[in-house]
Amino acid sequence: MPAARRTDTAKPRCAWCGTDPLYVRYHDREWGVPVHDERRHFEFLILEGAQAGLSWITILRKRENYREAFAGFDPELVARFGKREVARLLKNPGIVRNRLKIESAIKNARAFLEVQDEFDGFDKYVWRFVGGKPIRNRWTGMKQIPARTAESDALSKDLKKRGFSFVGSTIIYAHMQAVGMVNDHVTGCFRYRELARKS
Question: Catalytic residues, which ones?
Answer without folding.
Answer: 26, 48, 56
